[in-house]
Amino acid sequence: HDSVVICDYLDATYGGGRFSGSGSSRWQVATAASLGDGMSEAVILYRNEILRTDAKQPSAFAEWQLAKFFRALESLNAMAPRFGDIDMAQIAFACGIGWIELRMPERQFLAKYPAAQSWFTQISKRPSLLATVPKA
Fold first, then answer.
1. What gap in Å lies between CA 88 and CA 34, rounded to an integer?
2. Could you tell me the CA-to-CA distances from 53 to 49, 62, 100 in Å, in that order?
3. Pick from 16, 21, 64, 17: which is nearest to 43 by CA?
4. Region 112-129: what's the mean pLDDT?
5. Is the pLDDT of residue 120 over 80?
6. Burial 75-113 (b: 16+ CB within 10 A, else e)
């Protein structure tokens, strides 16, 4: 099952709705979490494609995936200033950005998205995220 279902179950069983939102905010959180998951999938496919091909230029497929990633970053950049307590959407975004930052730090993907970059810098300091950073 996907992350949203797992988070919903854990939140309903143990969290009292704090992690996945409630009422109308529930749909906003679920929509943003879906965007974060899609962002992660796109950037993983992008990196896998550029590693797979020997061409000096990324394939059309790789460029398409990268464009999806950048559109998600634009959305995150708009949403980030309004984020409150951590929720499953923020975790989804943090996982995707953390994944690509670890594997392609030289690209500095967040440089054009100051609100997203500031948010990621702050959320990355959380003990729960620090505990899951892969060891070098």
1. 10
2. 6, 10, 18
3. 64
4. 96
5. yes
6. bbbebbeebeeebbbbbbbbbbbbbbeeeeeeeebbeeb
